[in-house]
Design brief:
The protein has 243 residues and is an all-alpha fold. Helices cover 72% and strands 2% of the residues.
């Protein structure tokens, strides 16, 4: 009974932007982005940069300098998104009006709406670089869900953590370890669900399908906005865990 009360008490200490439902929503969006860019915008994934680094190095190894140089664009966008999110998070906190996490989701929502309006004839790189920039900011901003390190744009870390915690749980039967295992597993499942939704959306709505991710972002934005202006208004100076 005491353990249950302690876990409940710990949960109430987390900000709304740290709640697991926010991370579920954002990784769904991350999966949606992956399906969208791969299906309609150049056959690439913009959620992370590992594949781009591989391709960059392969082109260098083959002496294909121009093709290699192209990958400096997504690198720069991802780096820029990380740097800007780090700077703005500190600056915006000074005004005690909205949390950076909330503003970021609002910016992401606007970007998604505009990308859905972008004509098919426009270069795919516009969409790719925009989502590179957004995913970098999202990854750097949303770091821990209720005290557990999480990523909202890709699954590699979740797969590793899921396997590690699964073995630990089978050995110890510790409920806290079991919860971590389930949460990482749920993140992978929801990412896959986002990819599925994005793939189906691309088939039926084509370039406007990215607005499906916008619906999810809108719900997250409204909830975080409400929290910032009401029951967490006095907590705007509090830094989320992991920062």
């Amino acid at each position: 009974m005491n353990q249950i009360m302690e876990e409940k008490s710990e949960k109430t200490e987390f900000l709304e932007c740290e709640k697991i439902w926010v991370f579920w929503a954002l990784i769904f969006v991350g999966g949606f982005y992956g399906a969208y860019t791969y299906s309609l915008r150049g056959g690439v994934f913009c959620n992370a940069q590992t594949a781009n680094i591989v391709l960059f190095s392969m082109h260098l190894g083959n002496g294909e300098w121009r093709q290699a140089a192209y990958y400096l664009i997504p690198f720069s966008a991802y780096l820029g998104g990380t740097v800007i999110s780090e700077v703005l998070a500190k600056e915006i906190k000074k005004y005690h009006f909205l949390r950076w996490d909330t503003i970021l989701v609002g910016i992401e929502l606007i970007a998604v709406i505009l990308l859905g309006l972008m004509p098919a004839s426009w270069p795919d790189q516009i969409c790719q670089v925009t989502l590179n920039f957004i995913c970098a900011m999202q990854f750097n901003t949303f770091r821990q869900a209720e005290g557990i390190g999480m990523a909202t744009t890709f699954c590699t870390n979740h797969l590793r953590q899921f396997g590690s915690y699964m073995v630990q749980f089978l050995r110890s039967k510790n409920s806290s370890v079991g919860r971590k295992c389930r949460l990482h597993g749920s993140m992978m499942f929801i990412f896959a669900t986002g990819v599925l939704a994005g793939t189906l959306g691309c088939k039926f709505m084509s370039y406007h399908s990215i607005w499906g991710a916008g619906v999810v972002l809108f719900v997250v934005f409204i909830k975080l906005l409400y929290a910032d202006r009401t029951y967490e208004r006095e907590l705007l100076a509090v830094t989320p865990h992991g920062h």
